[in-house]
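hi! just following up on the protien thing from before. the input was this:
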Amino acid sequence: MDMSLLQASLLIGTGFLAGIINTLAGGGSNLTLPALMVMGMPAEVANATNRVGVAVQGLTALIGFRRHGKLETSDTPAILLPTIIGGLLGAVGAAYAPSTWIKPLLLGTMLTMALVILIRPAIVAPPAGTEPKKVKDTPSSWWGLGLAGFYGGFVQAGVGFVLLAALAGTLRYDLVRANALKMLCALAFTLVALVLFIMEDLVLWGPGLILAAGTMVGSHIAVKMAISARPETLKWFLFVMTLCGSAAAMLSG
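and the predicted 3d structure came back as:
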């Protein structure tokens, strides 16, 4: 696919912003998907190509969080198992459910998250010093992570918000560590999806790699922001992003 310098700049710029937004909260694909479709890509090709940037930003964020000692690895197999199972079930459900269900589900999820942050902020931002729990000791976390995975497999857009609610709300990780684990879960979804999209020859590698260059830089910067930011700042950034996600859901299709 031939691209002009303006189109390449658009992809790098939107990728940069999406890398920051996805690493600190979620919803960056609300920027990148329209940017790809403006270039003339069909929705399914844009969706597939977008995963290249999502995968690269995920890897970049995980390397950064791990370097700063913020990526908890002791319980990751237990965290990934229900999210991946839920994601597979959600993908199957999406294949058979009416497409008209997606927008109400996305909008409802975003508005619910915004209300939770306002009314019960401790759910997504546990008090300082709170010790994280293990999945095996918290049965509700298995269901929370499974539902987050199902949502991710069914809708994908805004899954970062749902994962944060599960990781901070049930397992009580602080927002920085919850964001790191969120990126790990999202990367697991994305790699599975990306392999399928590659097999179906839906990925346009030129735009995908240019987009990925932007997301990589944005994610790298966002990790540094997450490490140095006050928890209250991260909480309000998350709130603003949920409102942006709600607006995007209302304005879409």
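The CA atoms of residues 20 and 218 lie 5 Å apart.
The chain has ten helices and no strands.
cheers
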